[in-house]
Amino acid sequence: MDELDEIRRKKLEELKRELAAKSPVASEPRIEYPDRPVLVTDSSMDSGIKQYPVFVVDCWAEWCGPCRAIAPVIDEMARELKGRVVFGKLNVDQNPFTSRKYGITAIPTLLVFRNGRLVDRLVGAYPKQILMSRIKKYLE
Questions:
Q1: pLDDT of 3 higher than 90
Q2: Nearest alpha-carbon partner for 81 in 127, 21, 37
Q3: Is the model's pLDDT at 55 over the cut of 60?
Q4: Mean pLDDT for the chain?
Q5: CB count in 10 Å sphere of residue 65
Q6: From the candidates 54, 59, 64, 122, which is the catalytic residue?
Q7: 3-class secondary structure for the chain?
Q8: What sign for the dihedral angle of Cα 3, 4, 6, 11?
Q9: What is the C-alpha separation between 136 and 120, in angstroms, rounded?
């Protein structure tokens, strides 16, 4: 009887390993990394901060020239850093609660969150190389 129990135990372990290799573990949430900035609002800001390990929020307004100037740069970076960083766009005119909460007094402002905490703030229209170097240091 002991040999039969041992065979059953080994077979059960083998089946568990095969099953684990074929399907994602339920306790590990799957994060979708979009290749373009996501819309961020007062009601979705906190969930974005919690959901993504590195979340960069571009605070902007339609009337802001420098905001419009860096928009294509943010779009490029979202594509290039897909899988590592998620970018969000927060219209400060339409989302006053979040703007006040984070003290946004000038735009464009990029808020960099890592593991749910605000770790950096970039105010102004920076060139792509500077933005990349500032954001990449939070990927390690």
A1: no
A2: 37
A3: yes
A4: 90
A5: 8
A6: 64
A7: CHHHHHHHHHHHHHHHHHHHHHCCCCCCCCCCCCCCCEEECCCCHHHHHHHCCEEEEEEECCCCHHHHHHHHHHHHHHHHCCCCCEEEEEECCCCHHHHHHCCCCCCCEEEEEECCEEEEEEECCCCHHHHHHHHHCCCC
A8: positive
A9: 12
Question: Which distant-in-sequence residues (6+ apart) come within 8 Å of 27 by Cβ?
Answer: none
- Six token digits for residue 131: 């933005």
Please state the rounded mean pLDDT for residues 86-108: 97
Check: CB of residue 67 under 8 Å from CB of residue 108. yes
pTM comes to 0.78
- Would you state the structure tokens that stand for residue 116, as one six-digit string? 């749910």
Q: 86-91 and 109-114: which strand pairing?
A: unpaired
- For residue 95, what are the contacts with CB-CB under 8 A and spacing of at least 6? 40, 41, 42, 45
User: 67 catalytic, yes or no?
Assistant: yes
Which entry of 67, 81, 86, 92 is annotated as an active-site residue? Answer: 67
Concerning whether 64 is annotated as a catalytic residue, the answer is yes
Residue 25 pLDDT > 80 = no
